């Protein structure tokens, strides 16, 4: 049973300014989550007032009018600081809005602020940004606290908190803690789906080329996509509807006409063919998630769908391939940061080169610098064939694996999203960023490699009381089919609502009786 | 209440113990260490320094990790640049439709004069690793 915020706004049960104020207030109470880098209070309230005026006149711009949203801090937002959680862009105020941000604003959405991430979206924990790590709201949920082993009195709740996953951790935490109704993330190797799984929200990675990347500060041009985080699949479809489509400012968006769609309520899955890729039973997959995955497969089978095991033989090389291609493209994309036109500039001024070098030393953290250097290594003349071109060839093999499987009649692939539930922060930081990314991206980034759409649907709580999600991967540009199946699955599993003290206090009937907030 | 039945395919494989601290695909030992010359070359190309031995070790590990690609047979396989390779890139008409935002763009630059970005003198190569300390200290 979804509470429809949009309908409530239309009927006047709640006004956009009330909604905005409650979200802003909740953001303040959940400041300890560190989900937001910048909260644009003034402009948000102004947007809310304008929205209210439109509702008064009975002329809302659409379903998203007045809906509070948050945007990951690697999207350019005019007049609002865009930092990418890096010293390199601290204080940078963009002169333009990213296309996706502009589209949301044109629909009347209220931009609450910019969310925290790993520096330049490099990481799988949202722990490596200069503004500090993001805390998973579920760390403070009744469900997690009840399952926590009582520790010695020297350790308290403070040290027990778990990570959000990354790199769009801030966005996932913001949606999960009810401070906004939808958030934008980015997905290059799983950066939207990974935190979505850990925070118990829906995380959609659209097909590469469907949504404009203009204004999204690029990491890997051939794999980046804007990601959508919401509390239910219907909402994701609505946001997708307002964002998808050709953008003349991004020549990598396809020119096909995109028609926004409403998701049908699927009742008969007997014509569906679900593929279970056996290679996704990866080393390190927790027995809990394995069991959940199996249970989900049974769910489809018992409902009449055809469920078959399939093989994507090059899966185990996809992480290596990604590592090479990602660092190579990063080396190229990070070259623009030299302090001359925008961003941090070092005081060193002996020569242009030394200024660039000092600026980049001061502006980038170890993770970013490490990837730039690795990338440059793989692009050296003597290494180009053996590493970069080789990785591009392996990429084709990986993409072809999917083509073969989908060509054999499989409609959707069902896989786990993460290897386990969210790790405690103190555990997570014991390994370095690259190792963690290599471990955590293994289930998600093949979809980026092949450009396919994929979605995380929160499925159940783990034994520790933390969310676990499952991933559906679909055919290129078949988001409607993917989301329809995801919605059916979501209805079957009935994922529980987070029980957070702060949310209850701000309830006032807006969030009440919600399992998930739908504004469709 | 549905009975929990492990999907046939998944049950058949033994689950290896969780080794949380290792990469899912363990790195193999590399052929050789990266030479100091190459390290210097990389720092010059990237204009980013390794900072310390840990940075160099990180590169070595990254290379060893990437070496696993050698195991894959890619004979006759064309490299893939983009997943949209079968489509034509959109080209718009060569008409000027926007611009005239010099002031906004200059706002973000720290050093500028009129409509110019100001840079320190060019054509001065970054000194080699050994000389860098003194060079940078002398500023």
Automatic annotation (TrEMBL), chain A:
Q: Name one GO cellular component term.
A: mitochondrion
Top-level taxon of origin? Eukaryota
EC number(s) stated in the UniProt entry for this protein: 6.3.5.7
Q: Which UniProt keywords apply?
A: ATP-binding, Ligase, Mitochondrion, Nucleotide-binding, Protein biosynthesis
SUPFAM superfamilies per the UniProt record, alphabetical: Amidase signature (AS) enzymes (SSF75304)
Q: Which residues form the active site?
A: 72 (charge relay system), 167 (charge relay system), 191 (acyl-ester intermediate)
Task: Identify the residues that the record assigns to the Amidase domain, covering every copy.
Answer: 23-483
- Could you give a single Gene Ontology term from the biological process aspect? glutaminyl-tRNAGln biosynthesis via transamidation
- Catalytic function, reaction form: L-glutamyl-tRNA(Gln) + L-glutamine + ATP + H2O = L-glutaminyl-tRNA(Gln) + L-glutamate + ADP + phosphate + H(+)
Instruction: Tell me the compartments it is located in.
Output: Mitochondrion
Major enzyme class: ligase
GO terms assigned for molecular function = ATP binding; glutaminyl-tRNA synthase (glutamine-hydrolyzing) activity
Q: What's its job?
A: Allows the formation of correctly charged Gln-tRNA(Gln) through the transamidation of misacylated Glu-tRNA(Gln) in the mitochondria. The reaction takes place in the presence of glutamine and ATP through an activated gamma-phospho-Glu-tRNA(Gln).
Quaternary structure, per UniProt, is: Subunit of the heterotrimeric GatCAB amidotransferase (AdT) complex, composed of A (QRSL1), B (GATB) and C (GATC) subunits.
What family is this?
Answer: Belongs to the amidase family. GatA subfamily.
Q: What is this protein called?
A: Glutamyl-tRNA(Gln) amidotransferase subunit A, mitochondrial
Q: What organism is listed for this UniProt entry?
A: Columba livia (Rock dove)
């Amino acid at each position: 049973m979804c509470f429809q915020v949009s309908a409530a706004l239309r009927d006047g049960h709640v006004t956009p300014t009330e909604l905005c104020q409650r979200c802003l207030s909740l953001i303040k109470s959940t400041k300890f989550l560190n989900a937001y880098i910048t909260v644009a209070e003034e402009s948000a309230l102004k947007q809310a007032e304008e929205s209210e005026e439109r509702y008064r006149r009975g002329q809302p711009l659409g379903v998203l009018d007045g809906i509070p949203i948050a945007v990951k801090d690697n999207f350019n937002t005019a007049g609002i600081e865009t930092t990418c959680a890096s010293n390199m862009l601290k204080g940078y105020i963009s002169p333009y809005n990213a296309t996706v941000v502009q589209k949301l604003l044109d629909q009347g959405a209220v931009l609450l602020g910019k969310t925290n991430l790993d520096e330049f979206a490099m990481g799988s924990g949202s722990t490596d940004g200069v503004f500090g790590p993001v805390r998973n709201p579920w760390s403070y949920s009744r469900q997690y606290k009840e399952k926590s082993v009582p520790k010695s009195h020297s350790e308290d709740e403070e040290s027990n908190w778990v990570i959000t996953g990354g790199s769009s951790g801030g966005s996932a935490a913001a949606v999960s803690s009810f401070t906004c109704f939808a958030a934008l993330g980015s997905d290059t190797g799983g950066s939207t789906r990974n935190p979505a799984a850990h925070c118990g929200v829906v995380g959609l990675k659209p097909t590469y080329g469907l949504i404009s990347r203009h204004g999204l500060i690029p990491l890997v041009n051939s794999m980046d996509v804007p990601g959508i985080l919401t509390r239910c699949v219907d909402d994701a479809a609505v946001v997708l509807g307002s964002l998808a489509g050709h953008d003349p400012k991004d020549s990598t968006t396809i020119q096909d006409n995109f028609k926004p769609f409403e998701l049908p309520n699927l009742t008969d899955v007997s014509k569906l063919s679900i593929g279970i890729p056996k290679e996704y039973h990866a080393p390190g997959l927790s027995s809990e998630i394995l069991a959940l995955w199996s249970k989900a497969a049974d769910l489809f089978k018992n409902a009449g769908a055809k469920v078959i095991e399939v093989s994507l033989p090059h899966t185990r090389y996809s992480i290596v391939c990604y590592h090479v291609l990602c660092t190579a493209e990063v080396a190229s994309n990070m070259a623009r940061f030299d302090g001359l036109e925008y961003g941090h500039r070092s005081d060193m001024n002996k020569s242009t080169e030394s200024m660039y070098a000092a600026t980049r030393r001061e502006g980038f953290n170890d993770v970013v610098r490490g990837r730039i250097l690795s990338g440059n290594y793989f692009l050296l003349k003597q290494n180009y064939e053996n590493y970069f071109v080789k990785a591009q060839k392996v990429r084709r093999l990986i993409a072809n694996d999917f083509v073969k499987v989908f060509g054999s009649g499989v409609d959707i692939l069902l896989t786990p999203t993460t290897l386990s539930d969210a790790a405690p922060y103190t555990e997570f930081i014991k390994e370095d960023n690259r190792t963690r990314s290599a471990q955590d991206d293994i289930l998600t980034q093949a979809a980026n490699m092949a450009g396919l759409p994929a979605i995380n649907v929160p499925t159940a709580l783990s034994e520790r009381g933390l969310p676990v999600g499952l991933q559906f991967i679909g055919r290129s540009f078949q988001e409607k089919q993917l989301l329809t199946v995801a919605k059916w699955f979501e209805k079957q599993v009935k994922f529980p609502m987070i029980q957070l003290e702060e949310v209850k206090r701000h309830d006032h009937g807006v969030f009440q009786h919600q399992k998930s907030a739908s504004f469709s | 209440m549905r009975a929990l039945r492990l999907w046939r395919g998944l049950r058949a494989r033994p689950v290896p113990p969780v080794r949380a601290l290792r990469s899912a695909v363990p790195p193999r030992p590399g052929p050789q260490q990266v030479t100091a010359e190459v390290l210097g070359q990389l720092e010059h190309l990237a204009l980013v320094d390794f900072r310390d031995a840990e940075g160099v070790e990180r590169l070595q590990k990254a290379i060893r990790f990437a070496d696993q690609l050698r195991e894959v047979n890619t004979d006759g396989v064309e490299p893939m640049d983009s997943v949209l390779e079968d489509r034509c890139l959109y080209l718009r008409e060569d008409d000027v439709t926007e611009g005239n935002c010099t002031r906004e763009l200059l706002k973000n630059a720290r050093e500028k004069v009129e409509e110019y970005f100001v840079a320190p003198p060019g054509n001065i190569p970054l000194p080699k690793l050994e000389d860098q300390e003194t060079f940078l200290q002398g500023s």
